[in-house]
Amino acid sequence: MAASLSLKDVSLHFGGVKVLQDVSFDVEPGVIFGLVGPNGAGKTSLFNCISGHYRPSSGSISIDGTEASGSPPARLARLGLARTFQHPALQLNASVLQNVLLGGHTRLPGGPVSWALRLPYTARSERAIRTEALELLDRAGLAWAADLPADELSHGLHKGVELWRALLSRPALLLLDEPAAGLSHGEVEQLIATVKRLRTEQDITIIIVEHHMGLISALTDRVVVLDHGRKLMSGTAAEAQSDPRVIEAYIGKDAADDAA
Ligand SMILES: Nc1ncnc2c1ncn2[C@@H]1O[C@H](COP(=O)(O)OP(=O)(O)OP(=O)(O)O)[C@@H](O)[C@H]1O
């Protein structure tokens, strides 16, 4: 089931530095939502608050109505949250398949004791998740790479492996942090097609941080623009691109006045 997300007055301070200030917005279940803004606007910091990697200084973050603010990533994974990172966080010495399988960990029944003892029901679940991981890789055209060390793959494929790892957890809420960064034009087109397919085939809410406005326009139903840690506006990608406040935030007031 796709999850909803609600942020109310989320602030994040590091010492005297105000990274986020009173950010509020709601994301309805099943939408593709964009989080955009100039460099340093606070997008990744906000993702880190949502995914439990940062604890907000104040405010509330709820997933499907359950307060999630300050919860550790493992608890959020059980609430159905998965994410990718701006710089892929892979086990480079492990195989591609082993990396993808890490995403299935949250679906294993039992706990550390039954996992260590490899009880029959644990082993059965492990086999089923492994089959599903191989199917995901096959559909992505990556079956040939399953047993290769992740280290041997290109940057674009590292991004793909992170995405398949996140999907193996069967997330209800998926956060993609700059999924197009460093990809070639063809790889971005492929990524857009993949996310479109996800939307039609899976009941999932997706939030994307991205500078690539082509990808944001192609995929998102709605965006929020952040600037200097504050919400500047929300609307469609087209509305954001023609909003004078957004243009000013990206290119500066003088340049925006000159362009007007
Ligand atoms: N752990 C931290 N300690 C101190 N300052 C931080 C920390 N994490 C982020 N910041 C600061 O918060 C601000 C926002 O950074 P963030 O990476 O969230 O922006 P962003 O919008 O994702 O930028 P980009 O598009 O360049 O990735 C920056 O000024 C950054 O230096």
From TrEMBL:
Keywords: ATP-binding, Nucleotide-binding, Transport
Residue ranges occupied by any ABC transporter domain in the UniProt entry: 5-253
SMART domains, per database record: AAA
SUPFAM superfamilies, per database record: P-loop containing nucleoside triphosphate hydrolases
GO molecular function, one term: ATP binding
Pfam families for this protein: ABC_tran, BCA_ABC_TP_C
CDD domains from the UniProt entry: ABC_Mj1267_LivG_branched
PROSITE patterns in the record: ABC_TRANSPORTER_2 (PS50893)
Descriptive protein name: ABC transporter ATP-binding protein
Organism the protein comes from: Arthrobacter liuii
Gene: livG
